[in-house]
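pls design
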């Protein structure tokens, strides 16, 4: 449950229309369930407990936050933190699922033999399987309502002259611009930037879609803006100009003889069409090292940050993904705030920033739900956690997560909030009203009971009274806490290790690593690949792991300071996709030998597997 709700603004405007305060937009954006959006905004942003997880480098104001945008904004607002520039690249409502390639590392014993033979790692030999990161699947009205709430939350923590860059594609961008007009005012609009890039895929009919849009808005009529200049392709002569205070305009500059003064133009101002920032090549170092599907070029974010902020200002990205905004801000001597709900994002930006020697703190918003790596994977897991749940039961609409068949009650429809949609996190009267006055009536089965799971609940006694007073059917509505299902469901990996005192310090050797979840995923991958190969008549090369399973390890860290609480990495090593070791952020061409060295006695060990699960064990 939230500790409290924090208003978006000091005094929320009573009666403010949501999505329809501009007459011309009513036909476009007058979607269903706008009353829910309004109720949530009136209630405020949920403020949860925040747990510090790790401080990397020296204490600083830089933050990496695992949590959703709205609850992160509630935390920042409660802490009195203001943001000077926002760069966000939220989901595009593209209808696509985004996956991450999970690469097996080299068995240390095999890697040692390769090193002895002085062979290079062969990219073709890398074994990998895909794992879904998140689904960007939204109905248009749900997406726009979600985006509207997030924009309001972001605006509430922006400084007086702060700017915001919103990066979207051409399918949803024009709808989002109307929302930006409403949130920041039409007078807050500065630019629509066209980011043009070349890609090979094209449409069968129509012109190729080779650009995204970036909307630039400001909180005030005096926005922070620095002109950006780039070199010209070819130098040319230009007439010098000077400001004429009498004419109140720039005029051509002349010398004492009345002759025009020329100069060699070596650079030019950047306009609102950017054709000089290419997509990140999948094989480029920037993309290969990070391997994040939706990563944008560092050059793109550097230009946005240079234009909209000065050194020392705070730059925030509330859908941080691969961490390119935080990395670019850090390189440009800005403070940064990175927010994302996915643990893979947090780990990616953490390792990326550590390698660049940045100082920052990692915190996690404790919203009451023990997520796996991200909401998408948790939703998939829920189907197996609810005893007896069946999907696709005839007579049960898609509103319901599924149904359970019981001997006494018969078919029992089950509602589960969508963790990918923050709008459904709190069970409130509008949601219950929709269930009892619409969904119960629409059931095509003779149900005696339904189960409604919730993450947070607005007021359980008030909801139960509302159900009793307004449920016109004979169907019983049972409320259940979803957190009870998720509690302790994440099974930790098993680490078999030994720490030995040496003449120079301490040596910790990992003898065996067991990850039941990863072994199951690899088994599913092999089974699917084998079936497909039989159909195609081609041989299939399965993924095989050694008995020690050290190929499933990505990172090992030792804490020589704390036995519990906030983690401190006294020393750590990360094994990249090619099997090379990165020690405390410094890359090498050495292969991992299964060991990690520390000067002082380690008190805890943390091991991250190749999918991102982290297991921490005390060292006795």
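designed seq:
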């Amino acid at each position: 449950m939230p500790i409290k709700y924090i208003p978006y603004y000091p005094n929320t405007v009573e009666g403010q229309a949501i999505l329809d305060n501009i007459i011309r937009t009513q036909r476009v954006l007058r979607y269903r369930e706008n009353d829910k959006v309004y109720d949530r905004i009136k209630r405020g942003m949920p403020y949860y407990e925040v747990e510090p997880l790790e401080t990397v480098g020296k204490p600083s104001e830089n933050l990496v936050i695992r949590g959703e945008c709205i609850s992160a904004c509630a935390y920042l607002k409660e802490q009195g933190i203001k943001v000077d520039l926002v760069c966000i690249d939220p989901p595009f409502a593209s209808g696509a699922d985004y996956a991450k390639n999970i690469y097996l590392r080299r068995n240390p014993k095999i890697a040692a033999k390769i090193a002895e033979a002085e062979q290079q790692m062969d990219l073709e030999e890398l074994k990998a399987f895909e794992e879904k990161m998140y689904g960007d699947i939204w109905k248009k009205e749900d997406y726009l309502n979600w985006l509207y709430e997030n924009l309001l939350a972001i605006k509430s923590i922006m400084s007086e002259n702060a700017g915001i860059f919103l990066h979207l594609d051409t399918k949803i961008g024009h709808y989002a611009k109307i929302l930006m007009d409403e949130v920041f005012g039409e007078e807050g609009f500065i630019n629509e930037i066209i980011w043009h890039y070349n890609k090979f895929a094209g449409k069968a009919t129509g012109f190729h879609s080779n650009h995204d849009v970036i909307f630039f808005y400001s909180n005030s009529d005096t926005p922070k803006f620095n002109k950006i200049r780039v070199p010209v392709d070819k130098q040319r002569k230009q007439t010098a100009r000077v400001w004429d205070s009498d004419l109140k305009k720039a005029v051509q500059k002349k010398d004492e003889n009345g002759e025009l003064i020329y100069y060699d133009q070596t650079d030019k101002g950047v306009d609102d069409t950017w054709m000089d920032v290419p997509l990140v090549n999948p094989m480029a170092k920037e993309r290969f090292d990070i391997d994040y599907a939706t990563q944008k070029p560092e050059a793109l974010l550097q230009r946005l940050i240079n234009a909209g902020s000065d050194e020392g200002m705070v730059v925030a990205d509330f859908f941080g993904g691969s961490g390119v905004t935080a990395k670019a801000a850090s390189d440009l001597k800005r403070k940064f705030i990175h927010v994302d709900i996915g643990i893979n994002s947090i780990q990616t930006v953490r390792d990326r920033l550590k390698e660049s020697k940045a100082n920052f703190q990692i915190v996690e918003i404790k919203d009451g739900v023990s997520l796996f790596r991200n909401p998408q994977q948790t939703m998939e897991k829920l189907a197996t956690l609810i005893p007896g749940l069946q999907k696709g039961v005839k007579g049960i609409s898609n509103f319901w997560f599924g149904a359970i068949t019981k001997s006494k009650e018969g078919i029992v429809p089950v509602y589960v909030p969508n963790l990918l949609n923050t709008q459904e996190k709190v069970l409130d009267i509008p949601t219950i009203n929709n269930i009892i006055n619409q969904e119960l009536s629409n059931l095509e089965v003779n149900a005696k009971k339904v189960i409604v799971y919730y993450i947070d609940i607005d007021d359980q006694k008030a909801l139960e009274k509302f159900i009793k007073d307004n449920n016109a059917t004979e169907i019983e509505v049972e409320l259940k806490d979803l957190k009870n299902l998720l509690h302790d469901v994440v099974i930790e990996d098993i680490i078999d290790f030994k720490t030995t005192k040496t003449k120079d310090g301490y040596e910790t050797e990992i003898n065996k690593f067991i990850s039941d979840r990863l072994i199951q995923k690899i088994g599913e991958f092999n089974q699917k690949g084998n079936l497909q190969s039989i159909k195609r008549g081609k041989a299939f090369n399965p993924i095989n792991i050694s008995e020690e399973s050290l190929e499933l390890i990505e990172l090992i860290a030792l804490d020589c300071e704390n036995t519990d609480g906030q983690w401190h990495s006294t020393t750590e090593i990360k094994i990249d996709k090619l099997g090379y070791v990165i020690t405390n952020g410094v890359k090498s061409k050495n292969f991992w030998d299964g060991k990690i060295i520390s000067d002082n006695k380690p008190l805890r060990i943390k091991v991250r597997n190749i999918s991102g699960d982290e297991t921490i064990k005390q060292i006795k």
